[in-house]
Structures are given as C-alpha cells and as structure tokens.
C-alpha cells in the first residue's frame, strides 16, 4: 500500500511540468490573429484570419458601443477603448482580459506611442487626455482640455491653433508622481467681447 502511494506521488510530480506547460498559450505568430468588437455583448472575439475561425471570446469589457482598438508593438496585446471610459488590455495569445480600468466618463478613442510604452486616451468626459503605462495601465499624465484662443476655430490649420505637450506648463505632485498639465487661456480683450467681426486667421 505504501509503495503504491509513493508511486502515485512520483507520477504526479513527474506530470507537474507537463501541466504547467499546457497552461501556457499555444505558440503561434500574432500577425495571423485579429480581434472583432461585439458592441452589443461588450465582448471581443479573437480570430484566426487565415482559417477564418474564432479562437476565443473575452467578456467583461463594458460598453463597447463606440469602441476602438490599438495593438502593442509585438502584437500580443490589444488595448480596447470603451464608450464608458474603460481601458482594457487583452492578451490575444492567452485569450484573457489582462487588466481593465475605468479612467473617464466617456472616451473618444486612443493611441499607443511609437515605442509601445504609453497608451493615451481622449475623453469627452471629463475632457482632455490621459496617458497610461502600457504594461501596468498605471496613470502617467493627465492633460485637461482648455478652450483655444478667440482667434482659433476647429477647422483652422494656423500654427497659433496648434499646441504641443512641450509648450504646456506641468507640475508633478509629490504623492502620486503623475504629471498634471494645463493649457493656459489667453485673456480676452475688451474688443473681442463687443466686436462681431470674424477673427482673422493666420494660414
């Protein structure tokens, strides 16, 4: 009886590496994979584009009625921007939801930096732009929106209407370490409040 028990123990120990290996994702090229947003279900389908087949389904991504997606540089992770302000990191090899945060009230969409280290989200509510570390989704910068000067219009290509992060004064809180930036507003002159003339645009 004791010998049989020992044999079972050794057999289980021998199988542990095999069981651990089976938990790893199947090795495949990520360039053959893609994602499909199921808006109504709040779900992402991971598909094989060569075989036109569904590999896995990832649930729990919130409101995806106005969703967009960007990918990491190695094409393993998909970052999904939801209408409810959710930012989700999906592992398309494992078919799992790596992490999800709700960073705003209503997202427009987002982008990933060229080096793949930062993910930026644009928000309707509360407005502005938020930047997160791509690996952890920890906040890096919060850039609130501000009204442009009176001489700017949305359709203007004038250099005066362009703003870069480098030109925005920023301060770093000592507690969180996140970067908070604000675009200063130009004071309105008396003539701009009384004149109905269209501002001159610089092209």
Description:
With 203 residues, this protein is mainly beta. It has 2 helices and 13 strands; from the N terminus they run H-E-E-E-E-E-E-E-E-E-E-E-E-E-H. The longest helix has 21 residues, at 2-22. The termini are far apart.
In short:
The protein is mainly β. Helix content is 13%, strand content 34%. The protein is elongated and about 75 Å long.
Which H/E pattern describes the elements?
A: HEEEEEEEEEEEEEH
Give me the CATH architecture, please. 7 Propeller
The CATH class label is Mainly Beta
Radius of gyration of CA atoms, rounded to a whole number: 25 Å
Under CATH, the topology can be stated as Methylamine Dehydrogenase, Chain H
Task: Return residue spans where pLDDT drops below 50 for at least 5 consecutive residues.
Answer: 150-186, 189-203
Q: Strand order across the biggest sheet?
A: 8-9-10-11-13-12
C-alpha termini separation: 91 Å
What count of helical segments does DSSP give? Answer: 2
Oligomer type: single chain
Q: What fraction of the residues are assigned to beta strands by DSSP? A: 25-35%
The beta-strand count equals 13
Question: What's the number of structural domains?
Answer: 1
Shape: elongated
CATH homologous group name: YVTN repeat-like/Quinoprotein amine dehydrogenase
Mean pLDDT: 74
What structural category do the secondary elements indicate?
mainly beta
Report the major sheet.
6 strands, mixed
Keyword list:
203 residues, Methylamine Dehydrogenase, Chain H, disordered C terminus, six-stranded mixed beta sheet, four-stranded antiparallel beta sheet, elongated, mainly beta
